[in-house]
Specification:
The protein is of the alpha/beta class. The protein has two domains: about 240 residues, QueA-like (3-Layer(aba) Sandwich); about 80 residues, QueA-like (Thrombin, subunit H, Beta Barrel), CATH 2.40.10. It is about 20% helix and about 25% strand. It contains six helices and 17 strands. It has a nine-stranded mixed β-sheet. A six-stranded antiparallel β-barrel has the order 5-6-7-10-9-8. A two-stranded parallel sheet has the order 4-11. Helix 5 packs across helix 6. The chain is globular and about 60 Å long.
Amino acid sequence: MRVSDFDYNLPEELIAQDPLEKRSNSRLMVLDKQTGEITHRHFYDIKDYLNPGDCLVINNTRVIPARLYGARVGSGGKVEILLLKRISDNQWECLVKPGKKARPGMEISFGDGLLMGKIIDIVDDGDRIIEFSYEGIFEEILDKLGEMPLPPYITHRLEDRNRYQTVYAKFDGSAAAPTAGLHFTPELLEEIRAMGVNIAEVTLHVGLGTFRPVKEDNVLDHHMHSEYYKIDQKACDIINETKARGGRVISVGTTSTRTLESAAEPGKPLVPKSDWTQIFIYPGYEFKVIDALITNFHLPQSTLIMLVSALAGREHVLHAYEEAVKDKYRFFSFGDAMLIE
């Protein structure tokens, strides 16, 4: 299976640069995973595709202002870092630019010394482990100094940082938003609950590994970065009961999908679990939990387009993407949505 098998042509002008004024006004492409049939709707129509007794699974992670700008102690050279993964209270795995001079022992000052960082190690893919020192509460300092880590394909400035959060975000820890959830409003979620659709919450802190391009020609040679996830007893009960009653488990986003499929054991009910996952889902994978998926349109040759192809079939997905391009759907994080059912 070649990475090039998951390529498609995307005009740059279809990459959404700004969120819509109202979240649920985005377009919705509905893809029948069995037949490949496509229907064009709006996201607020998602209710028409949900049934009483179904279960939506949402990822309640919260994006932190993970991009920091600082200066090297001594030379004053500019340094940009992106917090990727918390290792301990004061240590983080980070992406550092420029990377050539970012060697162990280098110290960085942020906010004129309000936050100090020292590189203590270099790990896989050239990421750095940085140990931070500060007075006060790290999260408050980060909120003051950090910026939202928008993907590089978004070049517009985000005026309201809450637009890169889901309305149900709770637990800090992500370097990127679980973007399929950005389309939901509190009102839409209430209407869905009132229909008799259950909502289960899981947590997966999104790292950049999910979005990094696949560099190997052979899909099987790709190495996934680990991400922390947690699923509690309440979510397990809702999902297990849904399955037992014959309802559908509909995952909101690839991150919720990866959480469920990482926690599940074939033929067994879900049990509470917290762990690090490196699960890589591509065609040939047999899903253990999810029946349907709400997702956005993903980058060519990415692990995410491989995941949706595992659910709906590569040919159906690539045909749907061709139709989306023809019909001028908006792509990627602030773009339109797809329901695969």
